[in-house]
Design a protein that fits this description.
Blueprint (H helix, E strand, L loop, with lengths): L1 H14 L10 E17 L12 E16 L3 E12 L13 E12 L2 E8 L21 E9 L3 E9 L21 E10 L5 E16 L4 E16 L4 E13 L5 E14 L4 E10 L42 E13 L2 E11 L5 E2 L2 E2 L3 E15 L2 E12 L1 H7 L7 E10 L2 E6 L1
């Protein structure tokens, strides 16, 4: 009888049955992800010079995520991952690189109020300034406290972060580089979604504390830069319009005044159930020689791969030393849903510099070149998706000046990824 009772309890836990007749209070799920991606780089991120050879590799993400929920007042998530390139680790490895990319708890305090604390992703609006960066094999996380209120039409979040290298006992609070890219951050975000029509508006104020001071004596001096702006979305019928504008002020880590801005507009239209088109533009202010202020906009911790071309020439990688000319990106796209399991997309970008740039005493033409991006996504089976892409950059002589490489060399990039992401366990009790 004891064995039967024990077996019954185990089955009740694994299968999620409620044998007592009471409403289940606890909910647990476990998911697993394996995501290898093979890449051929012949001018990705940075243009290659004449005669430079292409590179190939396979990177991989192995992630295990545990979710827990108790009634409506406690939610927790623990996610561990190992990321790297095939062949990077020795066969006999005593120093594994398993890290926690998420480890947080959310306490629902009632009446829409909550507190969420720990290691977490910060994803807001279209991920232009704060995003999860899922394209990157490692993703992006913040160690932060999030306080908020949410109801059917309004969301208000306050995010607070304070970073330090270790548990110090003396020596001040200088934050050595190598961890998070900032020392402190305070972000206030509000979103209102209209109930009568498909419109929403978000406002964001982000105060970023960057470590300055004297790194040799470890005497810190935190300087603050503010980013504030609006994001709007309107989706009537088959149309979808989004727009945003942000301004930056304050100081950078070196103590130089900041005055920069960016704006974006995008319109998309669903022709029918299969075809869709889109056009848009992004403008990010840049730096000119002799500027007394920092006028180059910093898009901070967004998912840049999503916006400025798949080859990641801009903001996912840097300009050459001494240049930060900003960007004016004009683009158009076409999508085609070939079947319920197959989606294709094609995007074209024309890139220009936003600021004037001079080289050898002459003004450099602003045109940087054109990028052509193709992608296919194919759901092979439940929880398994194959994606592949191919991109070409046709750069100009101006691209050589601000990014390096040679526009006379063929610049292309191809990749293929398999995303296996099943939920392997779910239970209620």
């Amino acid at each position: 009888m004891k064995r039967i009772a024990l077996l019954t309890c185990v089955l009740a836990l694994l299968l999620g049955h409620d044998l007592t007749g009471q409403t289940p209070e606890n909910e647990t799920s476990l998911s697993f992800q394996i995501r290898p991606r093979a890449e051929y780089r012949n001018g990705a991120l940075m243009p290659r010079g004449e005669g430079e050879l292409p590179a190939s590799f396979v990177n991989n993400r192995a992630r295990l995520s545990l979710n827990y929920k108790r009634a409506d007042y406690l939610i927790m998530k623990l996610s561990a991952q190992h990321v790297g390139v095939w062949g990077q680790d020795p066969q006999i490895d005593k120093n594994g690189r398993f890290i926690l990319n998420e480890a947080w708890a959310r306490l629902n305090l009632g009446s829409g109020f909550f507190a969420q604390l720990g290691r977490q992703g910060l994803v807001y609006d279209d991920e232009r300034l704060l995003g999860g960066l899922d394209w990157n094999v490692a993703g992006r996380f913040h160690d932060a406290l999030k306080l908020g209120f949410e109801d059917h039409a309004n969301k208000l979040h306050l995010v607070l972060a304070y970073n330090q290298n270790d548990e110090k006992t003396k020596g001040g609070n200088y934050y050595l580089p190598g961890g998070q890219p900032y020392k402190t951050m305070q972000t206030l975000w509000y979103q209102h979604a209209a109930t009568a029509y498909p419109f929403s508006v978000s406002a964001l104020i982000l105060n970023l504390g960057q470590e300055g001071g004297d790194g040799e004596t470890l005497r810190g001096k935190t300087r603050y830069m503010q980013t504030l702006g609006l994001y709007l979305s309107y989706a009537p019928g088959r149309w979808n319009f989004v727009g945003s504008t942000y301004f930056q002020t304050g100081e950078n880590a070196a103590g130089t005044d900041v005055g920069a801005w960016m704006g974006s507009l995008k319109a998309a239209y669903a022709i029918d159930r299969q075809w869709g088109v889109s056009v848009g533009t992004d403008y990010l202010s840049g730096q000119e020689a002799g500027d007394s202020k920092i006028k180059a906009f910093n898009p901070l911790y967004g998912t840049h791969h999503k916006f400025y071309g798949s080859m990641d020439y801009f903001y996912a990688s840097s300009f050459r030393s001494g240049y930060n000319p900003g960007l004016w990106d004009l683009y158009g796209g076409l999508t085609y849903k070939a079947s319920p399991k197959v989606n294709l997309s094609f995007n074209y970008h024309y890139f220009r510099m936003a600021a004037d740039v001079y080289a050898d005493g002459s003004e450099v033409a602003k045109g940087l070149g054109s990028e052509f991006d193709f992608q296919l996504d194919w759901t092979l089976m439940k929880d398994v998706r194959l994606s592949l892409g191919y991109s070409v950059m046709a750069g100009t002589a101006s691209m050589d000046i601000v990014k390096g490489g040679s526009h006379k060399s063929w610049q292309d990039w191809g990749w293929m990824s398999l995303n296996i992401n099943p939920q392997i366990f779910f239970a209620k009790w």
